[in-house]
């Protein structure tokens, strides 16, 4: 999993009815785009995370075309 600042991290809900969590990557702390990432959620909350298999990166190019 590789990301750059400005990409979106989408953490998919694990349980039926649980919504996906979407955060903007504000800092890449690993080497060559690898985790961990500092992310900012839509409510302004920031966290450091190493995404698991239930997550995906949506690159800047993808969400600017939507």
UniProtKB/TrEMBL annotation:
Biased region (Basic and acidic residues) positions are 55-66
Protein name as annotated: DUF1918 domain-containing protein
Q: Where is the DUF1918 domain?
A: 1-57
Please give the residue ranges the record annotates as the region Disordered. Answer: 47-66
Its domain of life reads Bacteria
**InterPro entries the UniProt entry points to:** DUF1918 (IPR015035)
Organism of origin is Streptomyces leeuwenhoekii
Note the coiled coil stretches, chain numbering. Answer: none
């Amino acid at each position: 999993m590789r990301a750059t600042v400005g990409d979106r991290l989408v953490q998919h809900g694990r349980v039926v009815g649980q919504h996906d969590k979407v955060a903007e990557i504000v800092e890449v702390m690993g080497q060559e785009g690898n985790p961990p990432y500092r992310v900012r959620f839509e409510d302004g909350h920031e966290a450091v995370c190493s995404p698991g298999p239930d997550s995906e990166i949506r690159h800047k190019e993808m969400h600017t075309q939507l």
